[in-house]
Amino acid sequence: MSIRLGIIGCGLKAASYARTWTGSADAPQIVALTDTSASSIKRYSDIVVQSGADAPKVYETAEALLAAEKDNIDAVYISTPHIYHQTYAKAALAAGLHVLLEKPMALTADEAREILTARDASGRTVVVAYQSSLSPLIDSYRQRIAAGEFGELLSVSGEVWEHWQERYVGNWKQVPELSGGGFICDTGSHLFNAVLQATSRSYTQVAANLGNRGKNYELVGGVLARLDGDIPVTLSFCGDTTQGCESALTLYFENAIVKIDIWGKWAELRQGNQTIRNAGGEADGAVLDSFIKVIGGAPNPSSAEQSLHLAELWDLAKQSSEQNSAALALTSSI
Length: 334
Known about the structure:
Elements: E1 4-8, H1 12-21, E2 29-34, H2 38-50, E3 57-59, H3 62-69, E4 75-78, H4 85-94, E5 98-101, H5 109-122, E6 126-128, H6 131-134, H7 136-146, E7 153-162, H8 164-167, H9 176-179, H10 188-199, E8 203-211, E9 220-227, E10 231-238, E11 245-253, E12 257-260, E13 266-271, E14 274-279, H11 286-295, H12 304-322, E15 328-329
Parallel strand pairs: 1-2, 1-4, 2-3, 4-5, 5-6, 7-10
Antiparallel strand pairs: 7-11, 8-9, 8-15, 9-10, 11-12, 12-13, 13-14
């Protein structure tokens, strides 16, 4: 199934996806683009044209694109600074379009609820582009965990680190008015989501200690949380360290230990003295393929409800840090 897409935001991530999407067997028709950067528009348009397709139309604003093209496209992919996710998602849904939305879906739980309300009113679909939610490797372990293959889940720990402070100097990601936060709000959200995806359990409680190292956004932090079933979770975040970006999520079971890269690049299973390592990585076109399947009626592996839960978790993590790491209870679930 090939779909007609509008692109709102043509930055590096969008361009990376475009190279894969335009070369796939069921390449989407990229109908229209909008971005505030002329160079980003040109790069994206060049990718489309070099694939042999017609050049997409270009609009100055998302509002203009939606008004002119809502009857000519099936969906939009939104890859803008985080602050605009809610506005553009709601506008696209109101125009009767399906939405593939970069993470985080929203910056607060209230914003997330507004997106769910707009989605329900439109009868359309929202899929949030978390790689852990769309990873075949992580999904295979999720199914094995859910089937009880490794026994009872006892504890979860995880970490994510990146030279985020150096890497994004001068970028909108380090402007809280555009990003909604710092490293933990951005890269760190993948770790929060991977816990949900691997365990199929909701967070029930969170206590956090967030540090900013003199900046006006968080760069380091520790989170103690609990999942359904009173499962303890310990998460560590560092966005101001040596070059690179890596992660690991470790799940301790009665009969095994499972380690997973939060982007689905690899997984490691230890049972007794035997260790099995699996390579994965995001399958070519996995994000778009999953989106198309959901539009066609398949279960949504990265739903708006899940992102609402993550938005509430982030709200409470910030509140907890301001309240000397007080333990706060969540009201939403996945």
